Amino acid sequence: MLLFDALRMADREWSRKIGRAAISIQYEMVRLADNALVDGAFWPGPAEPEPEALGIDLVQVHCECPSEIAPGRYYRRVPERHRGFREEAVELADYEAYRPLAKPLKLVAPLVRVDTSAPVEPESLVNAVALEFRRSSG
Which of 116, 112, 96 is nearest to 104 (CA)? Predict the structure, then answer.
């Protein structure tokens, strides 16, 4: 949101450009941190080289939501999100273009899948991530 406010808003392509810049900043912050949690919607394929290029131990957490539930959640959240995302004009056909985001990245890192069709117990998720992290960095 800070980038939208600082650089002003424009069209959807501008929004995507800001999004790519934000992800670059996230990766640089991860490089500088001892421990980090990165949240984002990453495109399988194009986004896969960046996390592995960090050269650090990773655990991927993929939140999964049934396709019959996901669009409703998305549209309910639009009014709460920054206008810079330009989501107010997104139609169902546009939404379908984001379906690849419903897949985890193909990383060497361990994968923790989270079913978000019901509320998630945070402590269980933290424990699952910690276990996978210990296994992979052992």
Answer: 112
Instruction: Kindly report the backbone phi and psi dihedral angles of residue 51, in degrees, each rounded to the nearest multiple of 5, phi listed first.
Output: -65, -40
Round to whole Å and give the CA distance between 107 and 134.
17
- pTM, two decimal places: 0.74
d(CA 134, CA 127): 11
pLDDT at residue 125, as a whole number: 95
- pLDDT number for residue 110: 93
Q: What torsion do the CA atoms of 9, 14, 17, 22 make, to the nearest 10 degrees?
A: 10
Per-residue 3-state assignment (H helix, E strand, C coil) for the chain: CHHHHHHCCCCHHHHHHHHHHHHHHHHHHHHHCCCCCCCCCCCCCCCCHHHHHCCCCCCEEEEECCCCCHHHHHHHHHHHCCHHHCHHHCCHHHHHCCHHHHCCCCCCCCEEEEECCCCCCHHHHHHHHHHHHHHHHC
Distant-in-sequence, close-in-space partners of 61: CB < 8 Å, separation ≥ 6: 111, 112, 114, 125, 129
* Residue whose token pair is 């080289």: 49
Structure confidence by residue, pLDDT tens digits, 57-71 = 889 999 988 878 877
